[in-house]
Amino acid sequence: MLRGKRQSWACGVVYSIGWVNLLGSPYDDPYLSAEEVAQGFGISSATMYNKARTIREGLGIIPLDPNFSLPSRLAENQFAEILPAHLERAESRPVDPA
To answer: Structure pTM?
Structure first.
């Protein structure tokens, strides 16, 4: 993860957090397309997508992830209530070594 320009990683971070918070949904406000995010950082969309994927996979970020949701989004995010209880149950299960 240490390779690449700082603006590429910064764009990947912004896009990842925007992705969690539905920034790219034209039905929500604010709205900004992926291409506009990449242009704002002066990088290609492909570079932005690659960095964002690396960040999301590395941090385990999922769609509507309550750990990365804006406080204003948490109230309307039903997933925020369900996920902690689900993860608690999953962590308490024994791992099958097979």
So the answer is: 0.74
